[in-house]
Amino acid sequence: MTPMQPWHAVYALRTKFFQLKIPVFIALLLITNYLPAQKVDSIAFHLYTDSLKKGTHNYINVDGKLDNGKWRPLSSKEISFSTTAGAFEGNDLVLSENFKPEWVEITASLKSNAAQVIKTRVWIKKIPDPDRLPTVDEIMNKKPDSTKRSKRNKN
Question: Phi and psi of 20, rounded to 5°?
């Protein structure tokens, strides 16, 4: 029996590795199909703002608390959204520029468990955004407003 060349040994090991790798991969794939998925115990609004803007997409964040205690953001794939005004595009609530009501009520329900429903009322921003923001120099050189009392002068 002649000794194997080094590259023959490497080739033989590589072939055995791939012969083992494919069945292990298939077994793992089959096992993951039968593992229980994390279930959502409850849902909650975690809004990024206290008011909604007219004429823009307002992202409505709904998080799900999993049965292991961790929170996970949910999308419109898992949540059904409805509102008293405007229209949803995914998780975004779109309000027209000429929107008149002072607030909207948003309802979110879990698609996998329709009994889990939450509602919130969100106010509409009334003050328009400024056309131009002040520069750093304007902010730094601004003199204090004489009509406001200083915390030091409470006389």
Answer: -80, -35
